[in-house]
Amino acid sequence: MQILPSNITGLQVAPAGRTYHCGTLTYTKAGLFALFTWLLWGDFCYTLMEAVVPTILPLKLKALGSSNFFIGMIMATLPAILNMTICPWVSFKSDRYRSKWGRRIPFILCTLPFLCLCLAMLGYSDEITCFLQRHSAALREHATATVTLGLIAIFMVMFQFFNMFVASVFCFLFNDVVPAQFMGRFIGTFRIVGTGAGALYNFFIFKYANTHMHEIFLGATILYFVGIGMMCLMVKEGRYPPIEGETDKSNKGLGGIKTFLKESFTHKFYWMRFLSTAFSATAGAIGSFTIFFYQDMGLDLDHVGKINATSSIAIIAATSFVTIFVDRWHPLRICVYSSVFGVIGLAVNLVWIFVTLPGSYFFWLNIGNVLISSFWVALSGVAAFPAEMRIFPQSRFGQFCSAQALIRSAFAGVAGMGAGLFIDLFKWIFNGSDFAYRFIYLWLTIFAGISTFFLVLVYIQWNRMGGDKHFHPPASWNSQGVEELPVVPTIGPQTKWLKISFLLFDGIVSIPVLSIPFLMLWMFFHDEIFAFKWYGLAVLPLALFALSAWWMLKKGIYSDMAAARDKKTLHNGIPHHGVLIVIGSNFLLAVGIWFCQIFSALSLNLESGAITFGIANGITNLLIIGALYLICRIERGFSITVDEKYEAIDNACTPSDAL
Q1: Where do the domains of the chain lie, and which CATH numbers do they carry?
Q2: Is residue 216 a contact partner of residue 56, using CB atoms and an 8 Å limit?
Q3: 8 A C-beta contact, residue 429 and residue 327
Q4: Hey, is 623 helix, strand or coil?
Q5: What separation in angstroms does the CA of 608 have from each of 376, 605, 614, 618?
Q6: What's the rounded Cα separation, in Å, for the pair 639 and 362?
Q7: Taking a C-beta distance cutoff of 8 angstroms, is the pair 170, 46 a contact?
Q8: What SS3 state is found at 18?
Q9: Which of 593, 592, 576, 588 is nearest to 628 (CA)?
Q10: Which end of the chain has fewer CB atoms < 10 Å from its terminal CB, N or C?
């Protein structure tokens, strides 16, 4: 069937020249620019609107004398319940909806006036209370604060109900209108705009939350109505093919529920992805206690704010550089590699169970860490959503995202209580001391490790089903058993860049070996004999062992690279150079943090702390080598070539038979 072109409002498709496709949509460069502009403008308005309610409403509730239980129920429990009920239904229906406006935009546009009305009523709840009490004797019998709290609860339910329609489909719209080969770059810019909008709100507006609540809510309402309305009118969706393998009864009532469950939860590939995300959410459930960990380490709220601000600014700067690599290295590969090494990054923080430095020292070490890791964090953050777009069926993308969210929300809800019990257990062990919060990284490491295990299984299965060049998502509703997706070209392992990445890892394991004798000499002349002894007995042997393990692994990788060039059988697989360069740079720069930790401990006469930092570095390097070996084993049988030519295509499109 012929693919029919469509376009953005006011922009005609050029008859000649370079064009870009997404389904039946065809863009020129000017059309792409307009598309990105309107989508990012919508994101800016949506981000500002969403920032208002969770930051200001708790202050209002507290000022009205609300209990913490009521605040938690309104701000956390209610959205979670709606997320597990409304979002799956809206996502399922939007995938199957067909209209001249598309399948996503109608859900955003039709709820626009109702959402704005509810948002405005939240801001003017005091005035509405006064109006109702003037005209109702029954309401005058109750305290003004009580009536206002009741109204806020009602308005909040209404607001969240309509907001779930938008939250369910907003990001799905990107997958329907943005060409696949630009998705990484778009999501990167999307993250920059969203982070920037949040930063502007927190820096310029939030400080007026107590004094100008009405104006903030009204301003957010007007901005959202105008901004989202403009986006919906200016962005056009293409034509979608009919839903395959379903009758009309399959979309309605109990039949719709059965279809949702059957299509979403019957293939193990999707279950592995859902479980990976669920355990990632389980790990993150303990994140709300991080502030108390920082306080136990001697930081105040000003310090924490500066760390977070520095991290945000660094990530925004880094994101502008990493977007192009997401498309070229494949977002799923980036997520898997980053997740494997990320577990090590979490485990490193367990060192603070054994060492305590003054808050000022800990503050600057953290500033150094967030700056060093910003490129890595930005890369993995940008890759997350495009990875979903590359593994979930496009025709039912919203449905599968909502199925994943359903599992994730269920796990997160249970994990939230479990994390509290986990902290309470260590509080009991340490007699109520805030030292218990240092064990949050134990929780994070365990559940991030489980999440990574399932993500690795996803990656292996993805490779078995075609990988970079031939993967198409399983589709039980399709007679072929798979659904066609655009194949976006990626860059495979390149010898030149692999050698550069190996130089980085050479530095990671070699610098400690070369520097430890000088550290020991310094300890000896400064009468740090206890540290001198243990560096000789434990730290130096660990560093030498890590170095020898790396040499053996590197030799094996070079052997596989030679075999690949000669078209021979590989012993393992060849890791991708891209993410290794990013991760290698991160850990190499972190060696400087390691030196700072050691000298900080020694300057404070904390010889045991210096020993702990030294042993931790040796263990970390061994874990890094182990992670590299794991990556090679993961790639076994799939990554068997090097130096293949990268041929970028500008006209990547869904095969015609997908329609």
Answers
A1: 1-245 (1.20.1250.20), 255-476 (1.20.1250.20), 495-634 (no CATH)
A2: yes
A3: no
A4: helix
A5: 31, 9, 10, 15
A6: 42
A7: yes
A8: coil
A9: 576
A10: N
Please check the confidence at residue 343 and state whether its pLDDT lies above 90. Answer: yes
Residue whose pair of structure tokens reads 């090679």 in the numeric block: 632
Element (H, E) at 488: none
CB-count burial class (<10 Å; 0-12, 13-18, 19+) for 148: buried
Q: What are 256-290's pLDDT values in tens digits?
A: 778 878 888 888 999 999 999 999 988 987 776 77
Of 194, 10, 42, 32, which Cα lies nearest the Cα of 108? Answer: 42
CA distance 658 to 181: 18
CA distance 332 to 389: 10
- pLDDT tens, position by position, 68-90: 567 767 776 677 777 777 888 88
Please state which of the ranges 11-20, 186-195, 233-242 shows the lowest mean pLDDT: 11-20
Separation in Å, CA 146 to CA 68, 75, 139, 141, 574: 15, 18, 10, 10, 65
**pTM exceeds 0.85, yes or no:** no
Interatomic CA distance for residues 330 and 467, integer angstroms? 10
pLDDT at 377 over 80: yes
* Residue 353: Cβ within 10 Å count: 13
Distances 541 to 521, 533, 576 between C-alpha atoms, Å: 16, 12, 30
Rounded to whole angstroms, the Cα distance separating 410 from 80 reads: 9
Nearest Cα to Cα of residue 642 among 573, 579, 582: 573
* End-to-end CA gap in the chain: 7
State the alpha helices, DSSP H only, in 250-358: 253-265, 268-284, 290-296, 301-329, 331-348
Torsion 244-245-248-251 (CA) sign: negative
Q: Would you place residue 646 in the very low, low, confident or very high pLDDT band (cuts 50, 70, 90)?
A: low
The percent of the chain in helix, strand and coil, each rounded to the nearest 5, is 75, 0, 20
> DSSP readout, 410-442?
HHHHHHHHHHHHHHHHHHHHTTT-GGGGGGHHH
Question: Whats the size of the chain, residue-wise?
Answer: 659
The residues, ordered by sequence, that sit 6+ positions from 304 with a Cβ below 8 Å of its Cβ are 291, 294
**Cα 601 from Cα 528, distance rounded (Å):** 11
334 close to 379: Cβ distance less than 8 angstroms? yes
Amino acid residing at 593: I
Distance, in Å, from the CA atom of 545 to the CA atom of 239, rounded to the nearest integer, reads 60
C-alpha atoms less than 13 angstroms from C-alpha of 602 in its C-beta half-sphere: 24
Distances (CA, A) of 303 to 187, 309, 372: 30, 10, 18
Burial 119-131 (b: 16+ CB within 10 A, else e): bbbbbbbbebbee
